[in-house]
Amino acid sequence: MLPSEATISSNGNAREYEARAALMRAADVGDPIMGRLVLQYGPSQAVEAIRARTLPPEFTAKEAQQERPPDLTARLNVWYARLASSNPTADLEEGEKAGARLVIPGSPEWPTQLDQLGASRPLGLWLHGKADLRFSCLKSAAVVGARSATPYGTHIAAEFGVGLGEAGWTVVSGGAYGVDGAVHRGTLASGSPTVVVLACGVNVCYPSSHEALFAAVKDQGVVISECPPGVHPTRARFLIRNRLIAALSRGTLVVEAALRSGALNTAAHALTLNRYLGAVPGPITSAQSAGCHKLLRERKAVCITSPEEMIDLVGVIGDDLATQTRPPAVPRDSLNEATRKVLDAIPTRGGAGPASIAVAAGVGLDTALSALGGLAAAGYIERTTRGWRLRKQPSSYLKAPESDALEPPPIPEPDPTDVPPPPEDFPPTQSAYQPSEAPWPG
Amino acid sequence: MLPSEATISSNGNAREYEARAALMRAADVGDPIMGRLVLQYGPSQAVEAIRARTLPPEFTAKEAQQERPPDLTARLNVWYARLASSNPTADLEEGEKAGARLVIPGSPEWPTQLDQLGASRPLGLWLHGKADLRFSCLKSAAVVGARSATPYGTHIAAEFGVGLGEAGWTVVSGGAYGVDGAVHRGTLASGSPTVVVLACGVNVCYPSSHEALFAAVKDQGVVISECPPGVHPTRARFLIRNRLIAALSRGTLVVEAALRSGALNTAAHALTLNRYLGAVPGPITSAQSAGCHKLLRERKAVCITSPEEMIDLVGVIGDDLATQTRPPAVPRDSLNEATRKVLDAIPTRGGAGPASIAVAAGVGLDTALSALGGLAAAGYIERTTRGWRLRKQPSSYLKAPESDALEPPPIPEPDPTDVPPPPEDFPPTQSAYQPSEAPWPG
């Protein structure tokens, strides 16, 4: 799994690895100017230009035409100073010694979806773990959220980790406390690979108490970073890192996020990259769900309440459809309309005769009599000296008179507000009226 | 507040009140055939036709052309039987004695937005309470939800009742346990009128333990029903009643609803009537929020997390805008970019000299020195024998070096994942790349 001589030479360019390792030291992560320089001149020529402290004149001219022309001299000085104090060969050796490998654009393990990042595509990625990054990310979803997650958030994150993993999906996330850690643990439990994208070197353990977690991920998934080995995390690196989480996966799910949260930054990257975006709702009394609700309210994210729904969102059309949530059926649903009307007309207390029941129900006497017989046989009603009334304690083997079900149905609650499930396309039960076009009269 | 002789005669038609009271006995609530009969021939002629057991031939011919022609003879028999066993004059007297009043289309208190219901418009409404129904409903929102609400649901409902009421909005809801009761109590506490729409006669107390609540509503708002006095609630009446809750208000909010819930039926009525629809999210682990999440997921409802957001939804454009939820600001936000870069490059442990800080931060030495001075003065960093490092216990009067604020800002947490609030239009922090059109490569 190391970037052995064989891998490097099979890629035909050990020099390119070293040049990219050098540039990863020189530039800030995601620096678009460095990105354009490398895209246009290649990594080796870029290194030479920086060491010579002279950028190609055409490049300088082109950059000066940018909307906000960068201070190229200052940038070049920074790159030069950092290059002078770094040792890319040592980086490669150190990484290799730690068990990591450098993957660059063109490597077999390079995830080509990162090419969509354009000039801010990472110069290279350090990988540490047994899983193949490119293959793992083919069916992957990012699950992100608050570091200071609530117990609700970590519970949901772990459930989604298990659910996505069991369905054969790889999870991509950061390595922080809270949602990140919980979702990785869930995915590991399911036996699926999981991808941790760090904002520091792959040999740096941040947060340090996640050492065992990262070790488990390396064993079953892969820990990756665009930072050179030994680099420590900073605020800026966390924010830039988020674009990788969004770009690697087919869609991003925000489990919990306060209004000021890095997870919302990842969500914005997902939208910019035309990736799918989901958000898990939570109690409106929880500040840690406010960011999710903002995404839902602005219709930027789809409301996701189960791993199946997330897979439905990011999956292949037709292959990964979630089963529609459906209301439970109760025995009463299978009664026909006339029987239902008769049942509704039967009093709870006292009693009523068939004639008055028929008038109240709005059906003929024959219909009423036949319905009463069926309802009594099924245990819904009983006859008293004062007439028919509802049974107070319905039989536990209550079933609809028409039903041939062998299974005893559950006891229906005597609840007048209980309504039958709305039909698939959700029209109102009473749709006899035609609403006018105006949303409000006058 | 009674339907006094004066009111009836000012409307010029005591006979119409009596005819409508009779028809309210004869027909099921919301019966569209009765609705069409009354719309075409007026209530008095309809009563005569039923008593004569002969519908106008043109009407019969027209009904036979309906997509699913109704059994008019059976319907007429039902109407006839019920009319024969009822006494509309006694109804009016009984209602008046109980302190209620009958309001019919054309009455000054008739809420004309109900005319949108077309043939299923109620034949009349019994009102009991001090508030004027038409005036109260001009600025009104329906708040509905589960009878078996969770403590979360009743808490939210009460909060919305108070919030809507304090902003001058009338609440419309049913009279059930759970969300209905809680939202009325909240609105009553705010001093605003509230409208209870019953599925039984206004003199029937269902559920009976809501007697004190309904008494309070009658004192400050109004209890209404389209059922004649003394009628008991049935399943069908609850469902038909829901269209009134949706039609009376400018928009409906679903606070909590299981997948099988009457609140979803009200929501469907609101959509059919082109009213606004909102849903309050909740924990995805709660079955009582599953219906709300379904509405959000299908983008039928807007995600509502505060009374202000509901008012923003149903209110007048420009007048009732909710303040946008905004992430909190922290002192660090006001640091300029170079200072932030320098702060990010300062180690937590040990220490670093200005030259290495400048290289790590990617700024010039002069910039670094000036930023270090400002950051030290503001209490972010401190100098040790080994160089500069972050202060472990930031001063409680920490402020940004450039800030002239007199108020001491809160202590920022030393959290590298803490991000500045996204700008208004929410672009990603790093937007240097141009995403391609394809949502996923290859």
How would you explain this protein's 3D organization?
The structure is a homodimer of 442-residue chains. Chain A has 442 residues and is α/β, with parallel strands linked by helices. Chain A has 3 domains: 1-94; 130-314, Rossmann fold, CATH 3.40.50.450; 328-420, Arc Repressor Mutant, subunit A (Orthogonal Bundle), CATH 1.10.10. The first copy, chain A, is built from 17 helices and 11 strands. Chain A has a 9-stranded mixed beta sheet with strand order 1-2-6-5-4-3-7-8-9, sandwiched between helices. In chain A, β4, α9 (179-190) and β5 (194-197) form a beta-alpha-beta unit. In chain A, α2 (14-26) crosses α5 (72-84) and α15 packs across α16. The longest helix of chain A has 20 residues, at 32-51. Chain A is elongated and about 105 Å long. The termini of chain A are far apart. At the A-B interface, α5, α8, α11, α12 and α13 of A face α5, α8, α11, α12 and α13 of B.
For this entry, what is the oligomeric state of its chains? homodimer
**Overall structural domain count of chain A:** 3
Distance, first to last CA of chain A: 72 Å
Count of helix runs of chain A: 17
Poorly predicted ranges of chain A? 1-10, 399-416, 421-432, 434-442
**Structural class assignment of chain A:** alpha/beta
CATH C-level name of the largest domain in chain A = Alpha Beta
Largest interface: A-B, 113 and 111 residues
Strand content of chain A: 5-15%
- Share of residues in helices of chain A: 40-55%
Extended strand count of chain A: 11
Gyration radius of chain A, rounded = 32 Å
> H/E series of chain A, N to C?
HHHHHHEEHEHEHEHEHEHEHEHHHHEE
Task: Report on the biggest sheet of chain A.
Answer: 9 strands, mixed
CATH architectural arrangement of the largest domain in chain A: 3-Layer(aba) Sandwich
Strand order of the largest sheet of chain A: 1-2-6-5-4-3-7-8-9
Shape of chain A: elongated
